[in-house]
Amino acid sequence: MNPVRATASRRLEGLDALRGLAAVSVMAYHYTSWYSWQMGGHPEPGVSLAFPYGNYGVELFFIISGFVIFMTLERSSSAAGFLVSRFARLWPAFLASMVVTILSGAILGGFGPPFDIARIAANLTMAPELLNAQALDGSYWSLQYELAFYFLGGFVWFVLRPRDPELSCAVWLLASLALRFASFGRVELIQLAAAPFSQLFVIGIMLYRFHAGRATASTWAVMTLAFAMTLFGPHAAVNQLPVPWYSCMIACFAALVWLATTPRVRLPLIAPLLFLGRISYPLSLLSGVFRTNRSEVSDL
């Protein structure tokens, strides 16, 4: 086998394994801590089971996304090809998850009303909050930030055509800071710029630059700025980690992605994690279906 191809295969498998870990983490959070919080705990004699910080698996997903999407942009021949590939990757699975969510809501009485056409139509955009509509499932919240990253990345790469991504990423980080803390930072604009999570996507992009052997002093500077922004702490997490712990966690996530994509390092790859990683996107969409109840719908 071609050694380059074999190395690429191992790198992708490493990222799949990390996706599997992130997916298991988020699902464990949904079905332990979130379930207990919404349902008022388990009936007697009760079960002491919780994974309150599993929701931070989303941060790992965003770092991986920064790495993979920039790699995809470099390999895409056109903006249309990039957008079509992203649409084919995301929307069919999202549509299928919506069908499951609506049917489960109709059968179990989990949503009200489950057949609100306007709400369903808004959810078909994958970013219903931008249309002042509620998501059919709270698990969809991260999609609008992923989509914002795709469109921003596609626009910069194919329209502005920068030689290197460092300057664009630095501008994005500084704009995100301004939007988050300045008086003109409207919620919709913050969401469209993926401002609360720009540092995570940028960390992934810079990790790809290191991986590709094209890192410069600017790469280190942008990476440092992105890590510095983690000192503002997590964005609206239900279980808030102390800021130093949050920053350490992000550093550990970045180290895991670096290890998983470094040819000289072989992480132990567990078959179930690889499988879960390959289905991590639909799994994350469905991770909250059966824990949703009427009391939480108004809070989504």
Describe the structure.
The chain has 300 residues and is mostly helical. It contains 13 helices and no strands. Helix 1 (3-39) crosses helix 11, helix 3 (79-108) runs antiparallel to helix 5 (143-160) and helix 8 (198-211) packs parallel to helix 10. The longest helix has 37 residues, at 3-39.
Quick synopsis:
The protein is mainly alpha-helical.
Short descriptors:
mainly alpha, disordered C terminus
Distance between the termini: 50 Å
Specify the biggest β-sheet: none
The fraction of residues assigned to DSSP E strands is under 5%
Task: Write the element-wise H/E pattern from the N-terminal end onward.
Answer: HHHHHHHHHHHHH
Q: How many helical elements?
A: 13
Number of strands: 0
Please state the average pLDDT score: 80
The residue fraction in helices comes out at 55-70%
